[in-house]
Amino acid sequence: MGAINRRVFVKKSAGLTVGALVLPGSALMFEACDPVSAMFSDINWKEMMRTHDLLWKVVPADMTEAPHFGNGLLGSMIWVEDNTIRLQVFRSDVHDHNDHTYGWTAYSRPRYQIGYFTLKTKGEITDCDLRQDIYNARLKGRINTKLGSLNIDHFVHRHDDVIYTGIQASGEEKLSDWKWHPFEAKPSRGGDPGSKGYGQAYAPYNKQKNPEHLVENYEGISVGHQDLSSGGDYATAWKVSRVGNDKSTMLITIQNSYPEKTSVEDAIKVIDSIHGKIEAGYRKWRAEHQSWWHNYYPESYVSFPEPDGMSMYWNNVYRLACCTRPDAQYIDTPGMWNSGGPWPYSTHDYNTQTVHFPLYSANRLHLGEALVNALKRNKVNLIDNVVPEEWQDDSALLNLATAFDMRGKRNGDGRYKEMVGCLPWL
Fold first, then answer.
1. At 129, is the secondary structure helix, strand, or coil?
2. What mean pLDDT do residues 276-295 have?
3. From residue 267, how far is each of 115, 182, 250, 336 by CA, in Å?
């Protein structure tokens, strides 16, 4: 590629910093500024963002096609399997807490998948008309069957850690009950760490089985509880409210605690609290969620003439906010919508650095606070990672593969013993 002549303009005034990059012969422009600036006064954000919504006329059939939502800690996806609506839920900070006698991070402290809900339709599903409204971070539309349709209203509230789903049946379609399907709390990486291809780097290795998932009911609130043998637990709580045979709403929360085991109590409190808010005024509660997103998008603006590229950009701006927030966790390798697989942890030789890079260039620094907080919070662990111990007086080390606790001895994984640059780069 030949050299590109470019002009860069920077202007600072009264708390406002504006940068514009102009490439000759193109319409590419990037500006970063205060969201209340008059610079964006001529942009109709609602209409502009609407042109980048994702639309479905054919029903999404798996995770790769599903509408996806998140508030930086909780997430959701919706798709269809065998005339059944599948609502899968996620919490980004749920992982085990074993030490290295149970293997390296993929086996001792892996991220866990949470579970999913299913809703069976009465009629055969034919098609759909769904819109992932990224300006309001909300799913609206309907799934059609041979007997009628199911209208859907779904979002993950930005401020309250609750996943909301409203369903209304029309025609001869009738609502069935939501059913809960938890994932087993076990590593998703296949193979035995001591087998050929891994070698002595992972010995000793002790397999540990977590207790079975238990479901109980607490005065109308159902709770799926997952205890962890290494300490802590996590719980999924939900409450379904029905109006006749054709309308229902479901509230879901996922709570995580360590080393305490308070998730069940925490989850019940959240559902009780949000149910009360909705009874006091659903529209006001939803507006609080949408207002955050309306203020988020104007933190920076990019425009260029290729419409598919524009949609790619704005949908990734949407996804970044789905995946992290200051009081949650940074974005790890699985991301919000963890599908299991062989990398249920953070990989700090590339992924952590590159996934956070756009936060700075797009003027969304608050989304990087979780990463900064993790480094501060885990300072002792980073020092303890150093081998030999006498070097710990003035050194810290970030191993290639860690959980959110950033624990991982330099000699804990023989493949990466000499990879000592992860922390400086991060």
1. strand
2. 96
3. 15, 16, 14, 20
